[in-house]
């Protein structure tokens, strides 16, 4: 078997890696890691995941899981792993950089998933302290409110998806290895579909909020052009046969570019409100986690967006101070965790 592996043309290719492709692949792995750090830092520093759609997190994590499993199971990737038995460490690592790229992406987005749960903010459907802020709009429904159940559903579906992928892969690897390529392509299609719709709830959330909340603009500035470069790198490695892997990033980079444009637009108008006619965002559009409601979140970063008079603003601020002082709820319970004394200014980095 070892002799056969030594004669494998693919192994010979890995012994003579392209210097340009090696440098680009290495930079992409490092760049992928760096690009997610601003998002991680922003959520942690603000102590809230306000402005990040729970469905964006759900779709993004499951898409990253499917993409990582896809590239692990592609025939060429399995050949690269098998060739490591015959290759020196440097050549083996260089040959597996394409897999490492998707692995880093999966780890980084999974960490966003964890931070979203840790800093998820509950907003009660009925808050007596908000009664003097005006009546709720007719037809407002309590089930549109973001509750701690929302975070549990997101967590449960994400973990269930990962478990199903592992179980099916294990079964096929044991009793039907000839079906692994088909399963890999199915995972690639699943990842592409999930990635294709991943940004829709986030775009909708950002459009309704009229601000970015805890969404990181620097992350998107790095990832949008990086996504196209990443897709090109995978195309160079996998060719047209790897369409189910690199096609994901062409699609997501395009959608992320749309979101980036919106985010920059709203931030510019937030810094220069006179350009927007000095109008405040519509009350019916604003909610800490992107759900329709005229009631401010328990720790909303934009109390001024829910008030039309100084008295209303003072009432909101006093209520938030009182809630912060009484904060005792642990993870995934009303109020979440985080620093109740922090200034949750959306324009902070």
From TrEMBL:
Primary residence: membrane
Organism domain of life: Eukaryota
Amino acid composition bias (Basic and acidic residues), ranges on this chain: 339-349
Assigned keywords, A-Z: Membrane, Transmembrane, Transmembrane helix
Pfam family name, one: PQ-loop
Membrane-traversing stretches: 19-37, 52-73, 94-120, 151-173, 180-200, 212-236, 248-266
Cellular component annotations (GO), alphabetically ordered: membrane
Cellular location(s): Membrane
Membrane topology value: Multi-pass membrane protein
SMART domains: CTNS
Region (Disordered) location: 279-306, 327-349
Protein name (Swiss-Prot/TrEMBL): PQ loop repeat protein
Lineage: Eukaryota, Fungi, Dikarya, Ascomycota, Pezizomycotina
């Amino acid at each position: 078997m070892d002799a056969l592996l030594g004669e494998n043309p693919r192994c010979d290719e890995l012994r003579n890696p392209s210097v340009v492709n090696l440098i680009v692949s290495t930079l992409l792995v490092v760049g992928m890691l760096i690009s997610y750090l601003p998002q991680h830092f922003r959520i942690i520093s603000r102590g809230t995941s306000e402005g990040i759609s729970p469905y964006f997190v759900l779709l993004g994590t499951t898409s990253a899981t499917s993409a990582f499993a896809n590239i692990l199971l592609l025939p060429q990737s399995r050949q690269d792993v098998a060739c490591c038995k015959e290759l020196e460490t440097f050549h083996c690592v260089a040959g597996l950089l394409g897999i490492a790229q998707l692995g880093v992406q999966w780890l980084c987005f999974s960490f966003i998933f964890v931070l979203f749960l840790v800093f998820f903010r509950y907003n009660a459907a009925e808050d007596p302290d908000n009664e003097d802020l005006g009546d709720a709009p007719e037809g407002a429904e309590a089930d549109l409110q973001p509750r701690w159940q929302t975070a549990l559903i997101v967590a449960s579906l994400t973990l269930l998806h990962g478990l199903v992928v592992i179980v099916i892969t294990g079964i096929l690897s044991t009793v039907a290895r000839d079906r692994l390529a088909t399963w890999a392509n199915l995972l690639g299609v699943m990842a592409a579909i999930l990635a294709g719709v991943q940004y829709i709830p986030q775009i909708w959330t950002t459009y309704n909020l009229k601000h970015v909340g805890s969404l990181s603009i620097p992350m998107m500035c790095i990832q949008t052009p990086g996504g196209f470069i990443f897709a090109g790198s995978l195309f160079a490695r996998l060719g047209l046969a790897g369409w189910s892997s690199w096609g994901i990033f062409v699609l997501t980079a395009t959608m992320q570019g749309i979101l980036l444009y919106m985010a920059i637009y709203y931030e510019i108008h937030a810094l220069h409100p006179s350009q927007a006619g000095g109008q405040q965002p519509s009350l019916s559009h604003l909610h800490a986690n992107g759900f329709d409601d005229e009631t401010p979140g328990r720790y909303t970063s934009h109390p001024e967006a829910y008030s039309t008079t100084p008295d209303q603003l003072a009432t909101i601020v006093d209520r938030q101070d009182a809630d912060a002082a009484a904060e005792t709820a642990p993870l995934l319970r009303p109020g979440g965790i985080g620093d109740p004394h922090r200034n949750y200014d959306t324009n902070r980095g």
